[in-house]
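Section 5.1 Outputs to date
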Amino acid sequence: MKKVKYLILGAGPSGLTFANMLLDKGIEDFAVIEKENRAGGLCRTEYVNGQPVDFGGGHILDTRSRKVDEFMFRFLPESEWNHFTRDSQIYFRGQLMGSPFEAHIWQLPTEEQVKYLKAIAVAGCNLGTEKPEKFIDWITWKLGTKIAEDYMLPYNRKMFSKDLNSLGTYWLAKLPDVSFEDTLMSCLEHRFYGKQPCHSNFLYPKNEGFGDTFVRMSERLGERYYGNITVNSVDFDTKTVNNEFRFEKLIVAMPWTEFKSINGMPEEIQDGINKLKHSEVQIDYYSKSLPFETTAQWIYYPSEEFSYHRIMAMENFALGSKGYWTETNGERVALKKEESDFSYLNHYAYPLNTLEKPAIMDKLLSWGRENDVYGLGRWGEWSHFNADVCMERAMDLADEMTK
């Protein structure tokens, strides 16, 4: 049996960053277990006819955390990345318009602009009414009836869940209140007003896929990295995994729901894990160009006429590549109308922020820390973290645990 001080489950951005931070600190007593044959997790890149396809959808390097950027530049120098200003668009009623929706309604017919402005003026957030508890009511309160019904609700049904009221609203706090004044000014002056969305500036490798950087991170680990190993059993009493690895401290950077057999965890905690929900997303790659010209890197599709909810125009960020890929919720894959050149169903795409999730994760993570078990990243913490956030949290946890 392999005995290590730190056993890391999952070689996505979280697990690989944590492992490399240990090496930086001169700690070599660890191992990383990964189910796939290629590192990267949701940021994994595979090549289809020479074209990079990011299996978890379009992943990029945000520029807001210099600490994370400099960490990545150690594995792929900054000179090997292209810098982009975000250009995201929405395909709405037969035309492309800018994103976010509320900042670009000036691109719609005047009579439509008036309807949206009237709805925004009486949105609950602008009238100061009490925040609703149910997801659908909350979105309407936040953005006004018309944006909610025409864009936000259908898009979220396609992306996350048909039953939106099964989701909580606690994760939407970062969504800014829709401003009547900003929206009116954008309509009058035909330009963007308001707060820029996330990823307003980002980087993508010049000559390869985003996931190749994580492959380099795994290669640095040498014999401490174990690929093609599925975690079947975890025994918290004996501190063993698969009866092959014994640990002092366990870092869970994979979905808790993937554990086939668990021993030594309270039944109440295990019952909570069984209630955690997630969504699937299928990536479909098309080698042909889009049927229209666009400078956008990604395009949102709220209409249920389309099976997919987003298109990644890879030609506009993976420069020199060809084609595009679509992202489709697993529940909607059967509605796909066109055969793609390549498909991959990602079973774990997004943790769903259900009503009961916060209480479940609070109990799980608290019990874990009391027993030298640490949930980390999108799946270990069951939160919709982007790659840069996962990496920064891994850095912070490594610092905390090695003081």
